[in-house]
Amino acid sequence: MKLIDFHYELPPEAIAQEPVSPRDSSKLMVLDRASKAITHHRFRNIGEYLRPGDVLVTNVTKVFPARLRGKKITGGKAELLLLAPRGEQWKALVRGATQKTTLEFPEGLRASMTERLSEGEWIISFSSNHIHEYLLRHGEMPLPPYIKRPSPRASDLERYQTVFASQVGAIAAPTAGFHFTPELLAALQAKGIEQRSIVLHVGWGTFRPVRSETIEEHRMLAEFYEVSGETAAALSAAKQQGRRIVAIGTTVTRTLETVVDASGTYRAGEGETDLYIYPGYAFKGIDALLTNFHLPDSTPLLLASAFYGRTSGFTLKPAYEEAIREGYRFYSYGDAMFMS
């Protein structure tokens, strides 16, 4: 399949720059995969499309303030996006420097670019072993580049997280979860909708652009996941009983599809997944998907399109075109779609 087939034109004003308030006042597009019917609602009404016995699966990863702004020791601005610890060092993306050098940050912190990795990442050695504490003082929330502001606002510290975020380790949020409030989650639970969670620490591989002309040539970068024994057992039981597994976002989808087998049994444990889902993939682990509207040519768009249609190609294109006509807000702070 050609990447160009997954392109669409989006008016710049459709890219959400601010989150709505309250969270559950966002728009919700509901798509029936069998009939291809499309209807329009508010997210607070998501319970009308969930059934007692459904299992709602959320990603409880928490974004950390992973961006550091500083300068090269030789002068000139530089920026680090910390990806994950690697022993006493860190893996990071570097902006403003392409060769080995030392970077300087507030409070006298220094960072040495020691090794360049195959995907353009760097291994960074810091002059301090207390980087997590330092990030709380000087790190910035790593908002996506299409949210146009010089630096994150104080409100972004709260709104660029889900209300259930608890496990620190992501550089980007699982944005399908942004629409839930504690009150809405409680109402769904009262309706008999079971709630379970997994962890997938979202890295830059989720959003790394697909650069190959044919989508099959792209490769995902590995990301850490964890599925508890309790969650795995609950999901396996639900599958055996014919209850629906509802994935809140593409990160949950990739995790569950990584740990489920052909019989519908989910495996507990932790590890790394580089599962790449694109049209033609046979889903085994999820029955319904809640997701946001994704960037053109992106791997989350390929996954969502694969779930919506049984044929290859950009099956969601008509829905995206309708969303544009109806004034939906796109990307991280935007609106949602529910497919079942």
Describe the structure.
The mean pLDDT is 96. β9 and β10 form a beta hairpin. The chain is an alpha/beta fold. The longest helix is centred in the C-terminal third of the chain and has 12 residues. The protein is globular, with a radius of gyration of 20 Å. Helix content is 18%, strand content 26%.
- Number of strand segments: 17
Strand residue content: 25-35%
Report the mean per-residue pLDDT as an integer: 96
- Please tell me what the overall shape is: globular
Q: Topology, please?
A:
Elements: E1 27-31, E2 38-42, E3 55-59, E4 61-63, E5 67-72, E6 77-86, E7 89-95, E8 102-104, E9 110-116, E10 122-126, H1 131-138, H2 156-159, E11 167-170, H3 182-190, E12 194-200, E13 223-227, H4 229-240, E14 245-248, H5 250-259, E15 269-273, E16 288-292, H6 299-308, H7 317-325, E17 336-339
Parallel strand pairs: 1-17, 3-12, 3-14, 4-11, 14-16
Antiparallel strand pairs: 1-2, 5-6, 5-8, 6-7, 7-10, 8-9, 9-10, 12-13, 13-15, 16-17
What is this entry, summarized?
The chain has 7 helices and 17 strands. With 340 residues, the chain is of the alpha/beta class. Strand 9 (110-116) and strand 10 form a beta hairpin.
